[in-house]
TrEMBL record:
Biological process (GO), any one: methylation
GO molecular function annotation: 5-methyltetrahydropteroyltriglutamate-homocysteine S-methyltransferase activity; zinc ion binding
Top EC class for this record: transferase
Keyword Calcium among record annotations: no
Pfam family, one: Meth_synt_2
Signal sequence segment: none
E.C. designation(s): 2.1.1.14
Protein name: 5-methyltetrahydropteroyltriglutamate--homocysteine methyltransferase
Keywords: Methyltransferase, Transferase
Highest taxon listed in the record's lineage: Bacteria
Ranges of residues in domain Cobalamin-independent methionine synthase MetE C-terminal/archaeal: 23-370
Length: 375
């Protein structure tokens, strides 16, 4: 066990993901929330809203630097949703107001959904400009971009016609769109890209397996299709670009959508994906144990343990977090491990139930513990 001591933020781990990292989304500020309301009511133009977003993103980037993070994000301050905003700006995809929201434990999101109406492609996506702004203010820090994984279009999209009844055609068009997206972000300067994904949670419980079978599919076949979507999408990534994936069980107003450990899909996740790192939720008993990490075979795969919760403001006992890191290190080399919150703080614009001050303390807590463990 590493002895606790205060230390300055370290930069000895120079490639992403970093020893003390974060998933990406941050609580929307009151200024952002009010500006969005004013935009809807016509009191602000799109350009005026963008200037407010620019100012608030600049502020939170400086705050991320202050708490010691090496990677900075825009907090997803220009988005309402972590996934729909990106997906509905792909060619062939549209957003629409659905009859019902997404079901979480004891609550639902507001009603919104996406549908595939034509050939999927990536062209002139607005988030390229969002990244460029972040890149320009990141300075010596690493600008991290977060987008939903290609699985999320398959998982959440309504397919309006028979264009993609052929799964091979969907695989071709969707992965080509993501290959274009990855290259476009790279050309804009991005070297750290994260794919966010809740679809894997289907495999974590028998309830999820039942949902898969109810749609006429088998869990084993679907997980292999998901893995192929990921691997083909990132197959042409430039050598100096790091791509990670965050595997999520749902995060909305401090509640969740799915439960269960990684066991049923562990071989695919830990020995079947070509990503550079995996952000793993491990903040409570719903995530299961560390035993599935025994399937990690690649010495270059980084695992970011989400041992600090983003759902509530109370700080975890640092010694308990360190003991859990030690436990994980009994299955995989400790130098392949990193630390982060289990998820972002605001997967949707509503955000989790904690204050902005508590959010920054959580992130500072992650950095401090990481610096003490990986001296």
């Amino acid at each position: 066990m590493v002895q606790s001591q205060q230390s300055e933020p370290k930069t000895n781990h120079v490639v992403a993901p970093f020893r003390g990292d974060h998933v990406g989304s941050l609580l929307r500020s009151d200024r952002i929330k009010w500006a969005r309301i004013q935009k809807i009511t016509g009191e602000l133009t799109s350009d005026e809203l963008r200037l407010i977003e620019d100012a608030e993103i600049t502020r939170i980037v400086e705050k991320q630097k202050e708490v010691g993070l090496q990677a900075v994000t825009d907090g997803e301050f220009r988005r309402a949703w972590w996934h729909f905003d990106f997906l509905e700006n792909l060619e062939g995809v549209e957003g629409y107001e659905s009859d019902s929201g997404i079901q979480f434990h004891g609550t639902k999101t507001k009603a919104h959904a996406i549908k595939v109406t034509g050939k999927i492609n990536f062209h002139n996506h607005p988030m390229l400009e969002h990244y460029k702004f972040l890149h320009n203010i990141a300075g010596s820090h690493t600008a991290k971009m977060t987008i939903p994984s290609p699985n999320m279009l398959y998982f959440r999209g309504d397919f309006e016609n028979d264009l993609y009844d052929d799964q091979d055609l969907l695989l071709r068009d969707l992965t080509q769109a993501y290959q274009k997206a990855i290259q476009a972000f790279y050309d804009a300067g991005c070297r750290y890209l994260q794919l966010d994904d809740t679809s894997w949670s289907l495999f974590f419980s028998e309830h999820g397996h039942e949902q898969i079978r109810a749609k006429g599919q088998e869990p084993e076949q679907l997980q292999q299709f998901f893995a192929k979507l990921i691997n083909t999408s990132i197959a042409k990534k430039p050598a100096d670009m790091r791509i990670t994936m965050h595997i999520c069980r749902g995060n909305f107003k401090s509640t969740y959508a799915a439960s269960g450990g990684y066991d049923a899909v562990s071989e695919t996740l830990f020995d079947g994906l070509d990503v550079d790192g995996l952000f793993l939720e491990y903040d409570d008993e719903r995530s299961g144990g560390f035993e599935p990490l025994r399937y990690v075979k690649r010495p270059d795969l980084q695992l970011v343990l989400g041992l600090v919760t983003s759902k509530f403001g109370e700080l975890e006992d640092p010694e308990l977090v360190k003991r859990r890191i030690d436990k994980a290190a009994s299955f995989v080399n400790i130098n392949q491990l990193c630390l982060s919150p289990q998820c972002g703080f605001a997967s949707t614009e509503e955000g989790n139930i904690l204050s902005e001050k508590e959010q920054w303390e959580k992130l500072r807590h992650v950095v401090t513990i990481a610096n003490e463990v990986w001296k």
